[in-house]
Amino acid sequence: MSRPPGSPSVSRESAAGVATLKLRREHKRNALNAALVGELRAALAEADRDVAVRVIAIQGAGTDFCAGADLDEIAASQGRGLEAGLADAQHLGALFREIRQAAKPVVAIVHGRALGGGCGLATACDLVLASETATFGYPEVHLGFVPALVMAMLRRKVGESAAFELAVRGHRIDATEAASIGLITRVIPEEGFEPAVDRYLRDLARRPPGAVALTKRLFYDIEGADFADAIARGAEVNAAARLSDECRDGVRRFLGKKGD
Q: What is the pTM assigned to this prediction?
């Protein structure tokens, strides 16, 4: 089924502090092209600025999360030379960075296939909730291509041996195996998937947003730091957090309960 001309590639719905950004290229299994990536970057930035939003979810419309890069666009770029390909790659790489740099947690909601760049999109998110029937993989090698943009994230998430095997074999794995190697966060039964995801996201959105933002920033800021530097940075965040209104209120409530 073709999309109406001019229709958006990404839609947004918001409820209970959760902004859900939905990929809308069902006819291409939500394959990533420049237009979709640009719209997703803009929607992500808008949701991150929205004070009513506490959690950002990314989901695919239709039967799949995302099948990877749009090969029609890849083929077109091959005729334009190295600089054109580099610009396309940097555009997607910027999306991956911006997910990590967002102050709010970004959660991938995966059903069906998450392959190639689509698996990379899920990997870039802070948390990944997957249906038990979802499949993951980086099949680029079968096309003589390389899952290059996701390599930095993949090695950090699953460890050296598992990352190398996924990249060089290009095989698919199910959600259970993906969870066992740390590629995704949780596997959720197919029956009741949507209500379970909704409960998880709403529960996460109830956490104090300032504390969540500080936690996310520290989590990524200490990457690559030695132990002493990581402890020092943690001490700075600890001192700042305890002076926040959220922490003052939280401690006051806890001590008040002890006095009851």
A: 0.94
